Amino acid sequence: MEQPQEEMSFLAHLEVLRWHIIRAIMVVVGVALLAFFFKSYIFKYIILPHTEGDFPTYKFFCEIGRFFGSETDFCNQKLPLVIQNRTMTGQFSATLWISFWTGIVIGFPYLMYEMWRFISPGLYQQERKMAKGFIGITSVLFFIGVLFGYYIIAPLSIHFFATYSVVGGEQMIKNEIDIGSYIDMLRSSVVSCGLIFELPVVIYFLAKLGIVTPDFMRKYRKHAIIVTLILAAIITPPDVASQVIVSIPILLLYEVSIFVARYVQRKQEKN
């Protein structure tokens, strides 16, 4: 079996890492500049549609309510909130942040590629062949998480807080939301879900290092369920339905991670 490449000094490793980081930053900045150029399209068709009643998620839950003979708030044509800007640089800052996170999300596969290029010289040839699989799997899981956050977590959260009011009727307090607050909720929902969906990949490497075993994960499955419910309560509105919707895919990821850990363990025992 081919041995890992010759060891490098600490300073040489830092120099190599520096260039990997520089290339990754250049890609993120490049995508961010492109996103800034198309800012009107991004805000109109990606950022702001959650404030409209015809967003696909709202229509879906509206139809479910009608199926059970109930007319829910999801059937409203427009959410009772107004996105506003109260600072001179508010809209410009919002554009910069949206451009930056667009660069992170779209450039994620390349970020994983640069990370793999940095760690792969220390691996055996057989392990380096996994590069394409590593980049592909991490990217697919991340984008699935992003879509889940965008179409499930974000609309449920935005809809809940947009329709929540401590006083009803004519005295209802208007929700005039600052654009920065709105973008923060949308960004945290999308990016956090993208990272959460990387759980099987994280478990794979922990299993390779012997830190996590399938028996350990099975033993603490009940604890994982409690942690999942707490996590779901943090990233979703405080209602049971939303927490259950979020918990299901996370628990499925946990079960998949058990199979991943078992696969790694069996392969190591075979070798």
TrEMBL record:
<keyword id="KW-0812">Transmembrane</keyword>
<feature type="transmembrane region" description="Helical">
    <location>
        <begin position="94"/>
        <end position="113"/>
    </location>
</feature>
<feature type="transmembrane region" description="Helical">
    <location>
        <begin position="244"/>
        <end position="264"/>
    </location>
</feature>
<keyword id="KW-0472">Membrane</keyword>
<dbReference type="GO" id="GO:0065002">
    <property type="term" value="P:intracellular protein transmembrane transport"/>
</dbReference>
<dbReference type="GO" id="GO:0009977">
    <property type="term" value="F:proton motive force dependent protein transmembrane transporter activity"/>
</dbReference>
<dbReference type="Pfam" id="PF00902">
    <property type="entry name" value="TatC"/>
</dbReference>
<keyword id="KW-1133">Transmembrane helix</keyword>
<comment type="function">
    <text>Part of the twin-arginine translocation (Tat) system that transports large folded proteins containing a characteristic twin-arginine motif in their signal peptide across membranes.</text>
</comment>
<feature type="transmembrane region" description="Helical">
    <location>
        <begin position="21"/>
        <end position="42"/>
    </location>
</feature>
<dbReference type="GO" id="GO:0033281">
    <property type="term" value="C:TAT protein transport complex"/>
</dbReference>
<keyword id="KW-0653">Protein transport</keyword>
<feature type="transmembrane region" description="Helical">
    <location>
        <begin position="189"/>
        <end position="211"/>
    </location>
</feature>
<keyword id="KW-0811">Translocation</keyword>
<feature type="transmembrane region" description="Helical">
    <location>
        <begin position="223"/>
        <end position="238"/>
    </location>
</feature>
<comment type="subunit">
    <text>Forms a complex with TatA.</text>
</comment>
<protein>
    <recommendedName>
        <fullName>Sec-independent protein translocase protein TatC</fullName>
    </recommendedName>
</protein>
<comment type="similarity">
    <text>Belongs to the TatC family.</text>
</comment>
<dbReference type="InterPro" id="IPR002033">
    <property type="entry name" value="TatC"/>
</dbReference>
<dbReference type="GO" id="GO:0043953">
    <property type="term" value="P:protein transport by the Tat complex"/>
</dbReference>
<keyword id="KW-1003">Cell membrane</keyword>
<keyword id="KW-0813">Transport</keyword>
<feature type="transmembrane region" description="Helical">
    <location>
        <begin position="134"/>
        <end position="153"/>
    </location>
</feature>
